[in-house]
Amino acid sequence: MTFDEPLLSIRDLVIEIRGRRLVDVAELSVARGQIVGLVGESGAGKSLLLSSILGLLPTDATVRGNIVFDGLKLR
């Protein structure tokens, strides 16, 4: 990992639960030292997005896409 690469990179993230798509193609890149806030309407998928980074989604969730944190591929 170099300082040019983002600390967190999310690409093409799709989250479905029980066949229902709840997050549709999320993209996010966070540089080292950058502060980011997620805002949106209730039910927009903010908590699901963060839960997917932490690996805390329900067992019936289907996740596609890439999540890389500090050079480690989480998904």
Distance between the termini: 17 Å
- The number of distinct β-strands equals 4
Which spans of ≥5 residues are poorly predicted at pLDDT below 50? Answer: none
Average per-residue pLDDT, rounded, comes to 93
What profile does the largest beta sheet have?
A: 4 strands, antiparallel
Strand order, largest beta sheet: 2-1-3-4
Report the sheet-strand fraction: 35-45%
Q: What structural class do you assign from the helix and strand content?
A: mainly beta
Helicity, in percent? 10-25%
Shape: globular
What are the secondary-structure elements, in order, as H or E? EEHEE
Determine the number of helices (DSSP H or I, runs of at least 4 residues).
1
Radius of gyration of CA atoms, rounded to a whole number: 13 Å
Quick structural overview:
By secondary structure, the protein is mostly beta strands. The protein is built from one helix and four strands, in the order ββαββ.
Describe this entry's structure for a reader.
The protein is mainly beta and about 80 residues long. About 10% of the residues lie in helices and about 45% in strands. It has 1 helix and 4 strands. A 4-stranded antiparallel β-sheet has the order 2-1-3-4, with helices on one face. The chain is globular, with a radius of gyration of 13 Å.
Task: Summarize this structure as a short list of keywords or feature phrases.
single chain; mainly beta; 75 residues
Would you spell out the secondary-structure blueprint of this structure?
Blueprint: E1 8-17, E2 20-30, H1 46-54, E3 61-69, E4 72-73
Antiparallel strand pairs: 1-2, 1-3, 3-4
